[in-house]
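A further point concerns the way the authors explain their paired sequence and structure data. An entry of this sort, consisting of the sequence and the corresponding backbone structure tokens, reads as follows:
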Amino acid sequence: MKRSKIIMIIGALMMLLLFVFPLYNITLEAPQYPEPLGMDIWINKVTDHNPNDIKNINLMNHYIGMRDVPIKIKEFEIFPIVIIIMASLGVLIGLIGRRKLYLTWGIVMIILGIVGMYDFYLWLYDYGHNLNPHAAIKIPGQGYMPPLFGAKSILNFNAISLPMTGAYFMIIGIILSFIAFFQAKKEAKKVYH
């Protein structure tokens, strides 16, 4: 089997690691919490970073009028299906061995990644701004949206949002599809010479 095909298949299979490793993490640091609170966001669920973190985040958020961290959202049903389809297509494309399809798969994955990040941004915005007007603590004009990437001060908290292992595997998988494209180009030149 040609090297380009193997690279493409490996890149596509890396998408399945999103089911094994978290995609994203949001951590909240504050003086009253010696150990930061955090939640890991997977392709199909949200989990505590440390035991009881989500419970503590929900208790804290209640006072400022934020909803509980959602455990079930429609994206957790849609994203796994999309990833399984794209991984399967990527393997099939690798077996077919057409370099333009390697490129197309990589571009589609980038677009899907951007759409996923935009959806996550909308979710964060709604979660941080759509507050209960009857909350115990109200600060006019104050939003509590964590950053999409990086760190941000929110009242006495430092909110940190960063990609995790699953995101890096997804990026490597996409890069491998482009490497497969260029490798296939090299292999085609060798055939013609």
Q: What stands out?
A: The mean pLDDT is 91. The longest helix spans residues 99-129. The helical segments are 3-13, 53-64, 75-96, 99-129, 165-192.
